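Sample A.
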Amino acid sequence: MDNGLKHSTLTESIIGTFFEIYNELGHGFLESVYENSLAIALREKGFEVRQQIAIPVHFRGKLVGDFVADIIVDRSVLLELKSARTIDAAHVAQLLNYLKATDIEVGLLLNFGHKPEFKRLAFENRRKRPVEEGKSLMSALFD
């Protein structure tokens, strides 16, 4: 279904897979259990899945640290997984900052808490500062 949102078909499939896993496993496991389960299920559906990708963060042209993306699907959607009581503003801010630090424009925050919940965030590349001249960050990470 094309609803005008960037990567909508992909995100709908990821969200559907998230609910499949939640319905099968329930809540109460560590995030790593859900991460590995989601990676397996998405790969079974034919998606390219990368886990625990270190992504550099720059400030004024200098490397100041890294963050680790839980999952990147088809080089297009960044997934941040939680196993918390509920999604809160800090989780949303974390994913938004991850999107700002990459050339990925769409992210999903997936919470395997008492109730399954998700948030879809988007941050267009035209609003971001270039990370470095030349190659895109995703090209540098995956090639």
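Sample B, a different protein:
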Amino acid sequence: MEPTPPDAKPLVADDLQAPLVPGPLRVALLIAGFSCVGLAALGVVLPLLPTTPFLLVAAACFARSSPRFYRALLGNRVFGPLIRDWREHHAVPLHAKIMAITAITLVLGSSVVFVVRQPALRIGLGAFGVGLCIWLWRLPTRVPDAEESTQP
């Protein structure tokens, strides 16, 4: 059995009770999990592609198909904290919200100002951006515990 990465929380009881699915469904879940990890990686650099939802779906797929990949995803230094925060607190870290909203504002704002010429498309793109930012901001925010904020 592969050891749990040092910064990953151990699997919780719910994860251990989830039976591994057999055969073709397991393969499909593995493919879906890796596809979602790829989309999440793209979401890190593309502001309109969300990262966290794809990571959560990937974690769910791996929890049912491969404990090894599930632990690896939870232990990943980039993606692991987002998944663990959602799993443990059902919230998104404030810095992730701010980064996402800033990126959306910069990309959509520059598109509206410099690229899109039709007024209706400008209004639609602007409204989409505002709606997306409001939705992101309204997600529950993860506030670090006192002991977490004092660690170096």
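Observation for Sample B: Helices lie at 13-17, 23-45, 52-65, 67-75, 80-89, 94-115, 119-138, 146-149.
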